[in-house]
């Protein structure tokens, strides 16, 4: 039986991107009617990372404009919406509060139902928005604050197969960029510098590949780059451009090798998976993506990587997750609260520590 059409406004403010989007799910499948994002890179550039207080203030100033623009671009009014979805966690508490309180105010003013969405669930469900994947599928979330392998078995069913024990890979890219005097964000800077570099010149470790399972670790890899840099500086009196390129290539190759090998192990833990999917900013790295594609091909699985604009933080994924929650019969609630920690798999042991861009979950 066909579902009735649902049109939701989504809001996202968990880190340093203010976003609003309108997504409609009808007889022809889901459609993104608008997706507006205002980044904050310029506000934080001088500090080498996201400053939570600055981010929260910017969200409070920008969300209303994002919402107004999203509705205008979609050609809709409040009367055309069936509900609102907002990221309620995990993330930076100030940004989450800005989004949640905005959404609660709008719900009270319009009478629209409101669904709180787990930011990681929104990422994990994105391949259903973009590619219509059937459950179950394997999802790798790789970003500045998170790294997890998830068995996505339903709109509210996520089983963690492994995750990072320390740094997330995006965080490691940022730190290596700073070590080597490259600009932020570190992912694109390291990838650009690695072009033409020799990944075999320096022997970098592959942490946890000698341990069974799908857990990840990147802190030791970052430290190994630091030691090599210091050794080169001591021996040569400085770092040559060729050294920088080769260090970046070696680091990028190590991350790609770790993720692809752990993906192979994760695939083995989810027989019957319909696909291997990936989301998060690190999914944009060409070497990482190629390694994951190879792992999927070896297992005879479809490989799905949503468009980059939907891999990184955005509000379309939040609106879609709200639609999934509504379809699953999850009751809306106007009294939702911001949750800086919100694990997807409540039965998995907590991952210790927290990333620069938010709490691990």
Automatic annotation (TrEMBL):
| UniProt protein name | tRNA N6-adenosine threonylcarbamoyltransferase
**Transmembrane feature ranges:** none
PANTHER family, A to Z: TRNA N6-ADENOSINE THREONYLCARBAMOYLTRANSFERASE (PTHR11735), TRNA N6-ADENOSINE THREONYLCARBAMOYLTRANSFERASE, MITOCHONDRIAL (PTHR11735:SF6)
Q: Kindly list the positions annotated as binding Fe cation.
A: 119, 123, 313
Question: Quick one: a GO biological-process term for this protein?
Answer: tRNA threonylcarbamoyladenosine modification
Q: What family does the entry list?
A: Belongs to the KAE1 / TsaD family.
A molecular function annotated in GO for this UniProt entry is: iron ion binding
Q: Where in the cell is it found?
A: Cytoplasm
Query: Keywords, A to Z?
Result: Acyltransferase, Cytoplasm, Hydrolase, Iron, Metal-binding, Transferase, tRNA processing
Please name the taxonomic classification of the source: Bacteria, Pseudomonadati, Pseudomonadota, Alphaproteobacteria, Rhodobacterales
């Amino acid at each position: 039986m066909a579902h009735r059409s649902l049109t939701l406004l989504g809001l996202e403010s968990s880190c340093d991107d203010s976003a609003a989007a309108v997504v409609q799910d009808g007889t022809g499948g889901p459609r993104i009617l608008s997706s507006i994002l205002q980044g904050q890179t310029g506000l934080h550039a001088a500090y080498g990372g996201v400053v939570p207080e600055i981010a929260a203030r910017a969200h409070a100033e920008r969300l209303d404009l994002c919402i107004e623009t999203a509705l205008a671009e979609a050609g809709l009014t409040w009367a055309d919406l069936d509900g609102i979805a907002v990221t309620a966690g995990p993330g930076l508490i100030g940004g989450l509060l800005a989004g949640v309180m905005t959404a609660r105010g709008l719900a009270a003013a319009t009478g629209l139902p409101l669904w709180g969405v787990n930011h990681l669930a929104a990422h994990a469900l994105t391949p259903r928005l973009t590619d219509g994947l059937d459950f179950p599928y394997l999802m790798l979330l790789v970003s500045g604050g998170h790294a997890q392998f998830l068995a996505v078995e339903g709109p509210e069913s996520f089983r963690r197969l492994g995750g990072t024990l320390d740094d997330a890979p995006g965080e490691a890219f940022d730190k290596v960029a700073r070590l080597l005097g490259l600009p932020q964000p570190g992912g694109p800077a390291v990838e650009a510098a690695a072009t033409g570099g020799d990944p075999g010149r320096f022997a970098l470790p592959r942490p946890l590949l000698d341990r069974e399972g799908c857990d990840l670790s990147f802190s030791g890899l970052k430290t190994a780059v630091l030691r090599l840099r210091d050794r080169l500086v001591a021996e040569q009196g400085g770092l040559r451009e060729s050294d920088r390129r080769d260090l970046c290539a070696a680091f990028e190759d190590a991350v790609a090798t770790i993720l692809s090998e752990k993906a192979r192990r994760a695939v083995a833990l989810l027989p019957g998976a319909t696909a291997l999917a990936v989301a998060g900013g690190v999914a944009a790295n060409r070497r990482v993506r190629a390694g994951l594609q190879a792992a999927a091909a070896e297992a005879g699985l479809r490989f799905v990587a949503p468009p980059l604009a939907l891999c990184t933080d955005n509000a379309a994924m939040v609106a879609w997750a709200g639609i999934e929650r509504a379809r699953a019969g999850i009751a809306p609630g106007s009294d939702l609260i911001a949750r800086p920690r919100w694990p997807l798999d409540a039965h998995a042991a907590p991952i210790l520590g927290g990333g620069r861009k938010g709490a691990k979950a």
